[in-house]
Amino acid sequence: MNRDSGPLDRIGGPVVVFGVVGLLVGAALVPYAWGASTGPDGTVAVVEVHGTINGDTAAAAMADLREARQNDSIQAVVLDVNSRGGLASVSEQLYLSVKQTSEDMPVMVAVTGSALSGGYYTSAPADSIYVTPASTVGSVGVRAVVPPRGAPDNQITTGPDKTTTATQAEARRRVEALRRAFVGSVVAERNTSLSASELSYAKVYSGSRGTELGLADEVGGLDAAISAAADEAGLSDYETVRMESPTASPLSQIGLNASGDATVDVDTTQYFMLHGQLDVSDSAAQIEVTVNGTN
Amino acid sequence: MARTDLLKGIGVFAVVVVVIVAATVATGTLLSNPSTDGSVDAPAYDDQLLPTAVDDDGSVGAPDGDGTKTVVIDKSHGNALSESEMQPFVDALVRDGHDVRFYTGGTGGSGGFSGGLSSGSSGLNATLRSADAFVVANPASSYTTGEINGLDAFAEAGGRVLLLADPVDPSTGGQSVSIPNPLGTSTGSTVTPGQPTNLAANFGVSFGAGYLFDMTDNANNFQRLYAQPSGDSSLTEGVDRIVLDDATPLATSSEGTAVVESQDAQLSSTRRGGTYTVAAQTGNVVTIGDTNFLEPASATVADNEAFLTNLAEFLVNGDKEPGAPEAAGPSAGTGTGGFGGPTQPGTTPTVPSNGTSFPTGNGTSP
Prior knowledge:
- By secondary structure, chain A is α/β, with parallel strands linked by helices.
- Helices cover about 40% and strands about 20% of the residues of chain A.
- Chain B: This is GATase domain protein.
């Protein structure tokens, strides 16, 4: 019978063989087990909303937020907001995007400078807004350049409003409609003591005053917002991922527009949710955003 | 024998592959998160967003005047209100057969440098002698004592005076500056608009500092506020409410009466709410703290057209004694000075007989 013993018996029997194989397999799994026990439970994504809100900055922020919603490891979002607003249409898109994200997971805002006008519109649907005494919030309002009257001499247009976009009364109504949407959204999102018409003054409030009025919630920095977001998501152990907004070109930082960006070059009346200076050149309604355009 | 084993092996392989793929699909389907619902509810984006347009119909009617009156509109003090900006008003007067003249004070109508040249009173007073009504809107330079005295006598004699002014930009402080337009393209509207402060004060009216606004009940913008008649006045006949844009409040002496007031408005400089007078009448003088309602785009909004018709009627229904204000001093006997006839627009005006330092006027009739 001994002659019939198999190869397993010749190297020490099945127990030894399976023991060695088990050791090897177990060793191979060690890093995963170690990672599972000591690694982060999830990720808090820090999404930058910096600079003037235009098509580019908003597209990047909205893509980041979409990524946060779809990536299972990201369980909370902190918006690092330092913006004085920008185009009205894009600000509304950002508002909707943040609102959708906040329905999926905790979203906190840390105002690292100013969250004004469109920047505040973006911040409004967050669960909590963190400010510092010197940071600013508010400027809830809309502005537009008065439509020029008459068509320029050097153009042929097919209708009286092709270049002017609308009559002044129509433009005024449009601004009023945008104001209602903006103010109504802030009133709906924030538990503020200000009435809609008080908000419509479009004042800029300091962080401390904003907290008092309910336009912001807590005094604290970015790290406080991150840890609050993690707490809210039930993460005791987490990592943070920073998603940066596209950097503006050096020329635009000094107030020039070198890229011929369609959002500011088109010769039409634009509607802004923007705090700060709005320069209008003499020719029709060409608009450039200058001064602290990227803060 | 070998063939059977091979087929068996292939069969097992196929079954294993199918099982693995099926198990993967089943697990994936069970474990994968469904895509989140893309719709997000924005509570404020409802059908209440679109504001209602303020009714804009009708037209400024021709005033009911007796006879042909001469209405003189001052352009000699760098008045920042162009002919086109008051066109509906002028049209209504012209349609009823009245003479409307723009008194330029002899500076060729450019509107520049007028402050210095019109320092004398005789040119204006000579013009007033042949006029029945006088309109002052947004002057950039102040009126001299002689001019004020002349206008005082003019109103005393039954001449109708209409004073209009917008709020003064705080940065300019209401200074009497007159800026020539280097490009020469516009009709003089580049001058800094001001308020006829000293002239109005003479009639017991004072223009306020800052503009009026209403954050809640407005014509689709906080600066476009509604104003209602105050008491019974022929000026507000048929007027329910008018729309003013960027208006300034008025304070009147006890002789003056408020004609139009805005309720629950706030003043930008004090932020105090209350009822503010925006149009007042003192005898033959009507003062209004707004000019925008004269513009073609605003003249027919709400009841503005009825108010404008009444204003035109007020101007042409005066009963002025001929020859007032009487000439004084060196301007004696220059009763025709200052204006060309309405049928000769832009012609050389009559020069005062002793014409030395007197400004001359260009008569234009639209």
